[in-house]
Amino acid sequence: VNDDRLFQLLEDYVEGRLSAADQSALEEHLSSHPEARVRFWDYLHQHALLRQLALNAEGKALAARTTRPRRRIWIAAAAVLLVIGSGVVLWSIRRGERPAVAVVEKVDGRVLRENQAIAAGDPLFAAEGLETAPQARAVIRFGDGTRVELGPGTAIRNLQSIDGKHVQLVRGTLRAQVVKQPAGEPMRIRTPDGEATVLGTTLKLMVDGDRGKGTRLEVEEGKVRLSNLAGKAVEVPSGHFAIAALKTELVSKPNLVPSLATAAALVEKMPPNSWLSLPNTLMWNVIPDRAKNPKIQGTAGPSTIVTGWSGGALDSRRHQLLVWGGGSTMYFGNELYGFSLETLSWSRLTEPCPDPTDGGQTNPDGTPNARATYNGLAYIAHADRFFALGGDPATTRGGGGARLDLLWTFDLAGRRWSARKASGTKPPTYLGNTCAYDPGSRKVWWGEANPDAMGLYSYDYDSDSWTRHNSDHIYYQTSVIDPRRGLLVNVGYGKVFAYDLRSRNVTRQDWTTRGGESFVAATNPGLDYDPVADRIVGWAGGGVWSLDPATRVWTAVSAPNAPAPTANGIFGRWRYVPDLGVFVVVTSIDENVHIFKFAKP
Amino acid sequence: VEAVQALFLKHSAVLQGFITGLVPDLALADDVYQEVFLAVSRLAPKFRLGTDFLAWARSIAVLKIHEGYRGRKGVRPLDARVIELLAASSVETPDTWSQRRRSLSKCLEKLAPRAREVVDLRYAQTPLSTAEISRKLSWTPHAVDVALSRARRWLQDCTRRGVAPGAV
Lengths: 601, 168
Description:
The complex is a heterodimer. Chain A is α+β, with helices and mostly antiparallel strands. In chain A, about 15% of the residues lie in helices and about 35% in strands. In chain A, the strands form eight sheets. Chain A has a 17-stranded mixed beta sheet that branches. In chain A, a hairpin with a 4-residue loop joins β42 and β43. In chain A, α1 crosses α3 and α2 (about 20-30) packs across α3. The longest helix of chain A is centred in the first third of the chain and has 34 residues, at about 35-65. Chain B is an all-alpha fold. Helices cover about 70% and strands about 0% of the residues of chain B.
């Protein structure tokens, strides 16, 4: 069998016209000649690719045909829908003839694909779409981790994943967390009014039922290019929005959250790299009455909620900085506090347990014991839960270091604590632990300092499970997520190191950074990521330091009117507020809350 | 399960190519592909992350290919031993698949319009048979077969050489 004969046999094999004799000849040749098997795959891979390319081209053509809204087309479409509704299938496309491009991750309510209900775990195939009922929601996930959330009453069409991801938003609201896309293959989201081109970011797109209002794009992180039907385009950065609509100028504007109007007005007046003390924002104003709570005062009282090695986290949904602490022999009140950037005021989100346990993990009322929280706090954004683990429990015996390995979460909507019965290899906990929530992996990444089982762990809220990744020594540092690069970066105690959370093996990368020695030497510094500036920005008193993750160079900004730092560390009480574009910090219950407006050097 | 499904999606084009190679009938190949996805999802807890996903998925695919053929009367699959040999010699990865795709896309652009038309009809969403293409284009069935064969051969040469040897 020479090459021409083999080619002809393969042609007949593909077209299903091999005679029995020819099939035997082909099988014999393939069995005895390895090079024939290479030739076989060359030819058959082409066969498969021709199919994939044809389907992709058809999908694109379909998207192009259905993107431009014309009255006549819409009337025709309405007529078609009526016919389909009456049970007549005009166009039946066999799903199996297209490659799977994504998986349905979550379904809440009635969600349809080609008029058939779908369920979590179902694959979605090329050129397919979904529709959510008025009260329903759905989440789909592509192979690279890109997530697309569909709001109520939303319709998408024509999913594709060849030559970049494509999806067509017909109506409703779509929120996408797009991981970094390959060069030259951005994700494209088409709407009746234009197209958003995304390389890797978090965005929200809304197509209003009133066609005159067009498509609104809001960018939470990164940068998105939005074009309209007139062919004009605009780059929309983080914290901005733009509208593509007929007779509307396509411009990018700051996306001001109405509830943050008061704070936004203050921020707007601040010069770059400046501090602002927010007036009348002493946490002291909401501390429980001491006379009514004699059993919780400890040896040092409520000031140690902040000063006693304790931290906080930002509830980005309600724009409030959550502060929780005390513990050890210092303070036994376990009440949780929130500073609202919307009202610029403090709230006590829970009342203290009046008769708390002495050194245990759980109070008689089923709430967690007070503790010096260190950096063991986080906000699990996708679940809207406050995460708390480890620290130094409230006890009259002192000594520190008793285990607090029971994981607690706080339901911010229901204002209720829950102890989780997590599975997997749990961190034993100790003093000086640190953690950060990563929206990409949807996990809390935990640096364990306990010598018995130190290392990097991750906690998955959805499956309520822990995973231990290594046995690295992580102690008295603060963790931050760089979502653009998918990095967990730990800073403090004289070290800077990172983990690539997108890699299969999460191994420590020791970073040699330039400048910032005094900041790196600090213990438990304040640290968070600014997505607009693409900098890790920290504060531990004095100047504000920023680290460029690309060059690994620290730069300091000195600004007057900084508050006095907390002696034992800033921990998680320094947080970036995306919708305001500023950092907020709490340093004492007797000091106003401060905000810092950072500008990239 | 989610992590394994994500791996499946990442390797979906390669797996589909693998299945289509051993099941050249496009409709049957698509059925098998869906069965493989369901089986991979069901068996996900048994897969050890960090090991060779493609090798594992290919082994499942081979089982599903045999099952798929058993359900189709009148279709004679390749001998099981040959399928095993071919499966063992499949070394495609997502990267090499992307390279193939880019190369083939460029060559397709250089294909003569009439040949391209036949290829498009043969591999369309609803693929047409030789008889259907011949009716649509008013060609003889033989002319369609020859045009398809010549187009595929030319594309093979084009992608091998990386340049177009001349229009067909």
